[in-house]
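Morning!

This is the sequence you dropped in the shared folder:
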Amino acid sequence: MLTLKNFRYEVPTAIEFGPGTIQKLSQFVRELGGTNVLIVGDPGVLHAGIIKRLEEPLESAFIPYTTFTEVGVEASIESVDKGIELAKIKGSDIVVGVGGGSALDIAKAIGLMLKNSGNIRDYVGIDLVPHPGAPVIAVPTTAGTGSEMTRFSVLSDTAAKAKLSVGSMYNCPALAVCDPELTVTLPPNMTAATGMDALTHALESYVNKATQPISEALSIQAMRLIAENLRIAVVQGENIEARHNMLLASTVAAMAFNTTRLGLAHALAIPLGAFFKIPHGVVNAILLPEVMEFNIIGNTRKFAEIARIFGENTEGLTEREAAECAVKAIRRLNNDIGITQTLSDYGVEEEHLEFIVEEAMLSGNVPVNPVKPTKEDLENICRALMRTEVNEKVLNL
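The structure's back. Tokens below.
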């Protein structure tokens, strides 16, 4: 039965995609009116020589730049404040962020604050930013966060031990430069984790209540690319085709959820990541199968389709049986790429669940989830992911 639905779809970010694209960085800077660049990256991309690959085209074009690498594993508000101060001292009028989600989220926030007054904390929430920021060019070196396309900067408040989100279309980069050559040195464990982050983006967007035709098409494409390429990218890091397709999947998945938001995996991932220091991609990978199992009754048809996307033979099965195959497929994927941890491995215990759930229920991802959860539901999802139960489910695949 055809469902008619009004919707809005918007992506203000231009994309330059393909091997070697970073070599044209000076051209992109000039096209955006930039005359003095602040490069924002983490120590990892600095030591890997990736920042040097950005500096070279700027030097050749005689474009002044300053490099800021005080970026931690978590994108902290303190780093944003330091980056803004440096940019103002140096007269930077364009920001180039390079790295994973933390570096890109910080770069986007710095760009915002170069043209908006106050402190980045003033804009925590949705659509609270009054003016466009300075142009930002986002250069991802991981295939997972999709921050190069999204309106969100997820920032850590170290003092409060909390993660805060700034969401605004003004926070979208002006340009995403997606060069898969920059991802080939990513180690297998990070390739696995970031790939599962991208999958969670695509899948939660696809099944949630805010889904719409354009985002659905993007989610399907992203899931197909991940199903066909994530395992190869993990075990053959030098495989440029797999790296290309995983980076494309990450970018496309971000284009989907930028409009629709996500679901319970991301709602729970925020407090679990903030308080137990579980890497974001890993915690999403741990949560996703259990969240899928909980959500099946809210969108059985689409979960059955996800099973087929991941190569499950659903011929002769009922729609519900086919949907349950999707959960098994994602558990098998986690196992194949080496993500076998439980929440207990990171110190999560029964006594923590009430607080985790209270924090998760505040997320804007909860209202769009295909099944409306109670606090007890979320506690049960976490409880099922503790100790030996996860490994027992994998053994029964």
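Headline: Residues 14-183 form a domain with the Rossmann fold fold (CATH 3.40.50.1970).

More detail when I'm at my desk.
O.
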